[in-house]
Design brief:
alpha/beta; 9-stranded mixed β-sheet; 12 helices; 9 strands; 46% helix
Length: 307
């Protein structure tokens, strides 16, 4: 076990609302950690189920557990409340529907000491409550991060379910935008918004493969994956509305249709050759560029931009 004044180094934050069964599993994994010195902060975002009973159940096993209540409903409100309550150099957010590997805390401390990052994200492993479909790819949940190694994060993005920041930096950036995230007009992108602000300051973002969490609730249908992809793209484009609303609009749409044609041809070849490529993969790859263009056109019409 690594000791490095870990209570001052980093705090782990769990924001939760009405997901007591998931939270119970998450806290059990925290209780099983090899290193139990890291402060744990739970932000209860207006739960009306038995969340409080679950927290009280584990409080006797996790002595460094603190609970706070945020009445304003929304993930960004909860995350920002945690910033004010964090007394550590770093603040690390995990989702309530995750569990931690037993060496998570040790690996987190080691990573922070070695890289001293201002912003970073860790590995997310999808776990299925029912049998995992043969066609499901880790990239459907994690994007390019599913295939990365520990180091600088130049090709991937920060994943909200397993991410951390220098606490002072988050305060300087005024935290997460309250008009982003589930429950707001913009469904996703609250952590993407922060990442944009960080990268615009030329601050390096990092990835750590050893900081692993297991993410439950991935029993998604093809259509749910595509629906999430649509909302993610709509939110992402909202962030970049000033940049994309210009004369390059037709080029963006044309590029998506070229990608669609490319996936159509490649998908047929892979299915014929039977290289662990299934019809759901083909359908998702084929429809994603079209969905991205549809989200783009939706944004243009919403803002009265022309093609």
């Amino acid at each position: 076990m690594i000791n490095y004044n870990s209570d001052k180094l980093v705090s782990i934050v769990i924001c939760t609302r009405n997901r007591a069964s998931f939270l119970d599993r998450c806290l059990k994994s925290i209780q099983n950690q090899n290193n139990k010195t890291i402060p744990i902060i739970i932000i209860d975002n207006g739960s009306n189920d038995n969340t409080n009973s679950i927290i009280n159940k584990w409080r006797m096993f996790i002595p460094n557990l603190e609970t706070f209540h945020e009445s304003n409903i929304g993930l960004s409100y909860a995350r920002n409340y945690a910033i004010d309550k964090c007394n550590s150099e770093f603040i690390h957010y995990i989702d309530d529907d995750t569990t931690l590997e037993n060496d998570f805390c040790d690996n987190l401390i080691s990573f922070l000491i070695t890289f001293k990052p201002k912003a970073y994200t860790g590995k997310i492993i999808p776990v299925f409550i029912t049998k995992r479909p043969e066609w499901y790819k880790n990239g459907y949940l994690c994007g390019e991060n599913a295939y990365l190694k520990t180091g600088k994060l130049d090709d991937g993005h920060i994943m909200g379910g397993n991410m951390g920041f220098n606490t002072k930096l988050l305060l300087q950036l005024e935290g997460f935008p309250n008009n982003y995230g589930k429950g707001s007009k913009i469904m996703y992108c609250e952590e993407t918004f922060i990442e944009y602000k960080i990268r615009s300051r030329k601050i390096q973002v990092y990835y750590c493969e050893e900081i692993k969490i297991n993410h439950f609730g991935n029993d998604d249908t093809i259509w749910k994956i595509l629906k999430i992809f649509y909302h993610q793209n709509l939110s992402f484009m909202q962030l970049e509305s000033n940049r994309i609303a210009n004369k390059k609009s037709l080029k963006i749409i044309f590029y998506d249709f070229k990608q669609c044609a490319k996936h159509l041809l490649n998908g047929i070849i892979l299915i014929v050759k039977q290289r662990e490529y299934y019809f759901p993969n083909f359908l998702i790859d084929l429809l994603k560029p079209l969905i991205r263009s549809y989200a783009f056109i939706t944004l243009l019409r919403k803002n009265n931009f022309s093609l």
